[in-house]
Design a protein that fits this description.
- The protein is α+β, with helices and mostly antiparallel strands.
- The strands form three sheets. The protein has a four-stranded mixed sheet with strand order 4-5-6-7.
- A hairpin with a 2-residue loop joins strand 6 and strand 7.
- Helix 3 runs antiparallel to helix 5.
- The radius of gyration is 30 Å and the shape is elongated.
Length: 195
């Protein structure tokens, strides 16, 4: 009799365990919002971290000058990851390719200039160079600063740009020809905005 009870207890335990297991679905199913408990229906925000494999690159935008219009024109460049302001500005300071030059693009930036630092603090990028990279007549100097400003504010967390030379802040020309120490944005060079 005890063997029968033990067998019945074992069968009962197996039936109970089978009843407690989760059903298996063949794939995802749509659930009506009304059937979701209210606490789970709330909107949530999430942050996604993307890891970029070593040696990967990202596309960035730099600005050159369109001839004969004299307005800025965006051009795409590849920069090795992780992207930072200094890498992007180095692409800008390298100037247009030969093919871009033949298609009517030029730069007003002296390519012999070294970028010493390009640091962001509270959305303001300070570009520190080894020497004055904007040369020539005032309109060309304005265009050179505009190229840097438009390129820099394309970067995340950059809303304005100020300039330094060998660690010392300098005033630069805004689009209206005024000399400015204040951080500059795209609106400072509205006359050169791409069409």
């Amino acid at each position: 009799m005890s063997r029968v009870r033990a067998a019945l207890a074992l069968v009962g335990a197996l039936v109970l365990a089978a009843g407690c297991s989760a059903p298996v679905d063949s794939g995802p199913k749509t659930i009506r919002a009304a059937s979701i408990p209210p606490g789970l229906r709330a909107q949530t925000s999430s942050t996604t971290t993307t890891t970029v494999p070593p040696g990967a690159s990202e596309e960035v935008t730099v600005y050159f000058i369109s001839v004969p219009e004299g307005r800025l024109q965006p051009v795409k460049r590849r920069v090795s990851s992780p992207v930072n302001p200094e890498k992007v500005l180095q692409k800008l300071f390298a100037g247009p390719t030969d093919a871009e030059g033949l298609s009517g693009l030029r730069t007003a930036i002296n390519g012999d200039t070294t970028i010493l630092h390009a640091d962001v603090e509270k959305t303001i990028l300070t570009v520190d160079t080894s020497k004055n990279f904007a040369f020539g007549q005032v309109p060309d100097q304005i265009a050179a600063y505009a190229q840097v400003v438009f390129t820099a504010v394309e970067l995340p967390n950059v809303n304005g740009v100020q300039f330094a030379q060998n660690g010392r802040r300098i005033a630069v020309y805004a689009g209206d020809g005024s000399s400015q120490f204040a951080p500059l944005g795209k609106a400072s060079y509205a006359e050169l905005t791409p069409r």
